[in-house]
Amino acid sequence: MAASRIVIENCAIATVDANDTEYASGHIVVADNVIESVGAGKAPANLENVVRRVDGTGHLVTPGLINTHHHFYQWITRGLATDHNLFNWLVALYPTWARIDEPMARAAAQGSLAMMARGGVTTAMDHHYVYPRGSGDLSGAIIGAASEMGVRFTLARGSMDRSEKDGGLPPDFAVETLEGALAATEETVDKYHDSSFGAMTQVAVAPCSPFSVSTELLRQGAELARRKGVRLHTHGSETVEEEQFCKELFGMGPTDYFESTGWLGEDVWMAHCVHMNDSDIAAFARTKTGVAHCPSSNARLAAGIARVPDMLKAGVPVGLGVDGTASNESGELHTELRNALLINRLGAHREAALNARQALRLGTYGGAQVLGRADQIGSLEAGKLADLVMWKIDGLGHSTIADPVTAIVFGAAAPVTLSLVNGKQIVRNDRLLTVDEDAIARSARNEAQRLARIAAEG
């Protein structure tokens, strides 16, 4: 059967390919779920089976944004513990998070996904690691929400087995046993992971952090992931306190500890990586371990400024992450494009730290690298999956910024006129087409209130 084609013309295009190819006025042809051609000027004449033509005048088209670190469940605990550092923030919120159940997880996932998707995210991920006893099928609820939304999705199936009684931070009833966590993770991989080209759902193995999991869970988790052929994800080097914790408990810093447990490699990506010395960065570069940079959350929790320019120079794969919305209440990725650029300019490299195109690359191709899908998504090239966003840049917020990429990175969040995932439209004129945003907002608010009541009752 002949491919159905969508043609977008008369738009500025930032391909984010290896040469950063851009067109002041160009076209994109999508055939079913794959990009067929990208180029300057009008689309080729006499294309067959064109089901839709889009006039992109006044717009910039980019690859869809790719989020590489998040905690969806936190959507229903936004605005709490706003003046805490990481460890105190965790201590304050874990007793509440430990009460989540399946309806809460579903509503929170819907809210998190909706906020990202209508703001240009086409590939999302969720690092979910809180599985209280008797809470229901949390992984299934999260994956179901992503499927309904129509976004490409990776569930990083998290776990914790170091509770308060073991010197960790989570309440005892909020953690799993080593054996239970490994078995549940393997079951999730077997049930949901799709390794095919164009997969909409993938699963990663993701013990939470050095201070909430045992060494054995890290070690056996890495073995499980490699046996199953899936990626590995965790938090790393987020705060000074974490570094002190690792040195006191394990006699080494976080990077050396991770390497000793099998947690460096091209199939691994870690969130934050704020406190990395030259040796740490060299180890990540040597092993091609990826980083999910979360500038807004790092600032919210006063964690510090990650050395992103140094990582990029060394060859470390770096993407962007929203992080959980209890530490980044905006919940969308455009903020991270802008803050990655601005916050890194406060560091040692000052104005030379990052530019607009490097920031866009972090949020697109860099994210694809980190998720292990750079051959499929992250740039606009023939043969890649049709995940793209059309940003309106001729309105009040952007019309006086001559350069389109500068407009969307330095400027306010640009309206999304069209967003395609796998060749299917999920956003039109800043509104989601696949779900009812207002119903999601009501459901999330109700579940947030229910969680607050349950937590207050103890």
Using brief descriptors, characterize the structure shown:
alpha/beta; nine-stranded mixed beta sheet; 458 residues
Your description of this structure?
By secondary structure, this protein is an alpha/beta fold. Helix content is 36%, strand content 21%. It has 14 helices and 17 strands. The chain has helices at residues 86-97, 102-117, 138-149, 178-192, 215-228, 240-250, 254-260, 278-287, 295-300, 308-314, 334-344, 356-370, 404-410, 437-457, and strands spanning 5-14, 22-31, 34-40, 50-55, 59-63, 65-66, 121-128, 152-159, 201-207, 232-236, 268-272, 290-293, 318-320, 388-392, 416-421, 424-428, 431-432. Strands 1, 2, 3, 4, 5, 14, 15, 16 and 17 form a 9-stranded mixed sheet that branches. The protein is globular and about 70 Å long. The model has no long low-confidence stretch (mean pLDDT 96).
Helix and strand layout, with pairings?
Layout: E1 5-14, E2 22-31, E3 34-40, E4 50-55, E5 59-63, E6 65-66, H1 86-97, H2 102-117, E7 121-128, H3 138-149, E8 152-159, H4 178-192, E9 201-207, H5 215-228, E10 232-236, H6 240-250, H7 254-260, E11 268-272, H8 278-287, E12 290-293, H9 295-300, H10 308-314, E13 318-320, H11 334-344, H12 356-370, E14 388-392, H13 404-410, E15 416-421, E16 424-428, E17 431-432, H14 437-457
Parallel strand pairs: 1-4, 1-5, 6-7, 7-8, 8-9, 10-11, 11-12, 12-13
Antiparallel strand pairs: 1-2, 2-3, 5-14, 14-15, 15-16, 16-17
Helix pairs in contact: 2-3, 2-14, 4-5, 11-12, 12-13
Low-confidence stretches: none
Rg is: 21 Å
Mean pLDDT: 96
Helix content: 25-40%
Tell me the β content. 15-25%
Shape: globular
Total beta strand runs: 17
The secondary structure category is: alpha/beta
The main pleated sheet reads as: 9 strands, mixed
Q: Ends: how far apart?
A: 60 Å
Count of helix runs:
14
